[in-house]
Amino acid sequence: MTVRVGTFLPDFAPGSLTARRATVAGLEAAGVDHLAVGDHVSFVGGSGSDGLLHAAHLLALSDRLPVHVGVYLLALRHPVPVARQLADLAALAPGRLVLGVGVGGEDPHEFEVCGVDPTTRGRRTDEALPLVRRLLTGEPVTSDGPCFPVLEARVLPAAGSLPIVIGGRSAAAVRRAARHGDGWLGIWIPPRRFAEVTGQIAEQAAAAGRADVAWRHGLQVWCGFGAGVEAATAPLAAAMEAMYGLPYSSFARYSPAGRPADVAAFLQPYVEAGCRSFNLIPRAADQDVALAGVAEVRRLLAG
């Protein structure tokens, strides 16, 4: 059994390129399996970062580490230019990109400022996903879909088998993963529900003629590191409340905090439920403490 543990960088934007390169090198040396990035155009007052742009940056900082995008708001973009970006990244860093796709929606205004009706985000994603898949083969694609009509669109070079995992907790997300995904990326759910969802995906995929998928199911987890639970919770709670505009109590039951052994113990039931990949979103009073915590969690789960 292989369990892979990756991490978001605690504070991506500030700092010099030299510092970020050193951070990535340290994570690689510590055995962390991959890096992760998010994606928002204008979230809750304007915050965010472009997922594919930041993935490209991190891919350039390491010759080995994969980058997982968790998750990309495909509904905000046209699938043809997205396929172009993905094909370029696949050519520049072969086999090192995993694209997570979700519908978002926690901030409807983010969709509105992009000229997208937030109520259409599921339909747009369902239409765009198979178009992106087909475009990545390098073959000409024609579609008369209501959201993204295209005529003889083609993107070369072909990207090959780029892994796409689907995020979300709804029944629609489960169907999307079964029909279009190579895996599912959960968040804010108990281990029992994780096992239920992955079982549902396998059943629905088999019914759709996709019984031979090598599933790569994972979990995205906010976590805090410190000398104890209280010390670890404070920076975690502050970060989550600033991000989501909600009290930390809304997330506490799914957001472990404490020493690395505490976080690893929290994640172990998910491993037993079939989770094989974690994207940790670590927070601590000090960035080095956060990243050292991720590396230790990886060591504990891998052992």
What labels describe this entry?
303 residues; alpha/beta; TIM Barrel; 2 domains; 8-stranded parallel barrel; two-stranded antiparallel sheet; 13 strands; globular
Layout: helices, strands, pairs:
Layout: E1 4-8, H1 17-29, E2 34-37, E3 40-43, E4 47-49, H2 51-61, E5 67-73, H3 79-92, E6 97-102, H4 108-112, H5 121-135, E7 141-143, E8 150-153, E9 164-167, H6 171-180, E10 183-187, H7 191-207, E11 218-225, H8 229-244, E12 257-258, H9 260-272, E13 277-283, H10 287-302
Parallel strand pairs: 1-2, 1-13, 2-5, 5-6, 6-9, 9-10, 10-11, 11-12, 11-13
Antiparallel strand pairs: 3-4, 7-8
Helix pairs in contact: 3-5, 6-7, 7-9, 9-10
Short description:
It is built from ten helices and 13 strands. With 303 residues, the chain is an alpha/beta fold.
Characterise the protein shown here:
Helices cover 43% and strands 20% of the residues. β7 (141-143) and β8 form a beta hairpin. It folds into 2 domains: 1-32 and 216-303, no CATH class; 34-163, Luciferase-like domain (TIM Barrel). The protein is α/β, with parallel strands linked by helices and 303 residues long. The mean pLDDT is 95. An 8-stranded parallel β-barrel has the order 1-2-5-6-9-10-11-13, surrounded by 6 helices. The chain has a two-stranded antiparallel sheet with strand order 3-4. The chain has a two-stranded antiparallel sheet with strand order 7-8. α3 (79-92) crosses α5 and α9 (260-272) crosses α10.
